[in-house]
Fold:
Amino acid sequence: MRKAVLSLFLTLFLGINVIPIYADELVVYSARKEHLIKPLFDAYTTKTGIPIKYVTGKAGALLERLKAEGPMTPADLFITVDAGNLWKAAQEVVLQPVESEILKKNIPSHLRDPQNRWFGLSIRARTIVYNKDKVSPSDLDSYSSLGDPKWKGRLLLRTSKKVYNQSLVASLIAEKGETAAEKVVASWIENLSVAPFSSDTKALEAVMAGVGDVTVVNTYYLGRLLKKNPNVPLAIFWPNQNGTGVHVNVSGAGIAKHSKNRDQAVKLLEWLSSDEAQGTFASLNLEYAVNSSVKPDPRVAAWGEFKENPINVAKYGEHQTQAIKLMDRVGYK
Amino acid sequence: MSVINKIGEFRKQRPSFHLFRTFRLNSPGWFLTSFLIALVATTPVLVILSSYFFPEEDIWKHLVENVLQGLAFNTLKLLGCVIPLTALIGISMGWLTGACDYPGRRFFSWALVLPFAIPPYVFAFVYLGIFDFSGPVQSLIRESFPSIGFIDIRNTAGVSIILSLAFYPYVYLLSRSAFLTQGRSTMEAARMLGKSPLASFFSVALPMARPWIVAGLLLVTMETLADFGAVAIFNYDTFTTAIYKAWFGMFSLNAALQLSSILVVFVLIILVLEQHFRFRMRFNESRASGTRHQRLNLNGFKKWLAFSTSLMVFLLAFVLPFSQLIMWSWSNLNADALRYFEYAQNTFILGIVTASITTLGAIIIAYSKHSNPGFTMEWNARLATLGYALPGTVLAVGIYIPAAWVDNKLLDIFTGITGVKMDPLLQGSLTILIIAYVIRFMAAGFGSVDSSINRITPSIIEAARTMGATGTALLKRIYLPMTKTGVLTASIFVLVDVMKEMPITLMMRPFNWDTLAVKIFEYTSEGEWELAALPAVGLILIGLLPVLFIIRKTE
Structure:
């Protein structure tokens, strides 16, 4: 008994449990979920023989971990979803700039940091989805027009606590200014049929059930529903096609400032943006590739092409706090 | 064996419990260890306080003007519903299975603990899946009665029911062990004085069980305050919502920490109030070992009422969510599921190691408090158990930031002296993860140990002391045997709580230490409830083992 207890404490407190990081190994902190990222790591290891170690988690918490570890961090690459989180990581100086022609060529400039500290790797389009039985697409126009009185009691939204909606409102602020954006969001709240939902999926299911007729979601959530049941009465509408274009966000990555293995990490990042990886990266979650030479999954392609908003996604981070305050003020839960 | 015999036996033998040998007669070791635990547990609170060096006036102004009032009101409403509901379910079930006899009593006594293995966030997504607009229940109702519109269950009542079903086992287990170990003499005296069973329950059994019930309700209160997962699924904004909004949304960790300090103060006030009301009340009563107390035989209408309420609670709190999870898992089985064995193993190891350390710590704190009553040890215990009231992620940064800082400083010094580069010791290690768990769940262990220690009468201790038993021997010969149930309950609370824990694990785990809860998070945060069902079933199944174990040991 005493021996067992003693050895347990020894193991715990002498740090034998710290798994050493080997020289040729890459370490990734990822806020993108394991099932959406592991297949790519496996493919890269098979191709190059370089093992990849990773830990997943919430973006904000992983960022704090990276910050606290400072120069001692084992992390080489930081992957996260949402441009706001990437922007914040750059603000906190935990990422380092990368000058790479490959990355510049593969990734359009509005989907990466103007100072090259992070790079978008997949596009997530946030668009309008409606109930085919109740809404004619000709009634729809832009995000703002969802505040028209004709949608009174017919609109459903996800919670304002989700970063996707914060980014959407941030882009409205960047385009229209705060006062006009606040009016738009307030008019949405006027039109809500029930209180906002905790997830895009719940909002879509509520449209199917008839609680409301129209909602705003990331396309891949609809993709997942269609995968399970192709006959759901939901359809996609691409808003703002005569104006600014569809609101897009990214999942992306940057090289950790204190990476011990910078060159290899850059190679991994370049590979993730390549034709070879981009198809998998996007189709694993039915998203769109940032690399324009890669075609989307057939199910995604079936929704048709759309004009996307060319605003640099870094703007979302800059306006995020403003967006949250605005949504709080108009009572968007 | 009676207490006196045990003390007599003590004089014949030398203590054989080596682990405690260092803590000798009058040894300060107990108190030092106890202080040390409180010191480590206070670290995150200090980190929280240090955030006040970085004022966030802008964010505070916004929160105060637009958000805080509503959130505080929501949180209080939630507490106002969850506390009475868990008390009602927990105490009545504890009384029925602990002190009465009715059909199915043996079965329900363990079956009613099973919901404890289901994490609150799993309760939330399962119940939402069944009862929300697009769920099977409302769809069926709409088909049959089209005039009934949509019913939104995402409100205070809905969230309260979910949290009560998830948290009542704390009150149930603790009050049940109180009723089980209450001596029969007091109840009999009340009956002989002509009181009805119900009247004697309210005038004797209930007041005598008060410390346990209060300990359970305190745990429920802190769990409710710290919960983020379940309320987020219902999009019900509580105080934790503001904390996460400030941190993840407005990118201000400092504002989040400052908000958390309000929670800490709130919990301290509750603890002090509780102590105040308990002042001068004594709960020193215990059945002598070996005597079984007489159960109250329910008959006729009463026994079926007891049966059907127990059944109802069991169905709602376990059978319904568990079968829904099984159905979802079944339709989503894939080869990936094989990896869950590894996650289950990780989950279990973390739980066992943390439960052992935490229970030991709880014994040390409770014992040093009991053997040296007064202001110092009282506050020592309070500080050591504060971690339970903090949202997991806040506690995690509160530990990780100072740990990494110390780590980096040490490494700097080490490299400066020897010129050799070394890997960090604490950051990204199991050690720091387990320390965080211990701080988080010390309260869950302490409450149970403390309330059972508190009923050891001073006269027993005095008797033992006159026979020469002191310090460690006293603990080993008197305290441990007499608090066995409390200690077991404590270790199960911690074990199961750790296995269900999500935010700390997410932030602090080392590589390759994914747990079932981590998997559940990865799916639920993507809205993939049905895929989350399989790891949830795994989590419940391994949580059942310790739950069944404790029931066998305490029956």
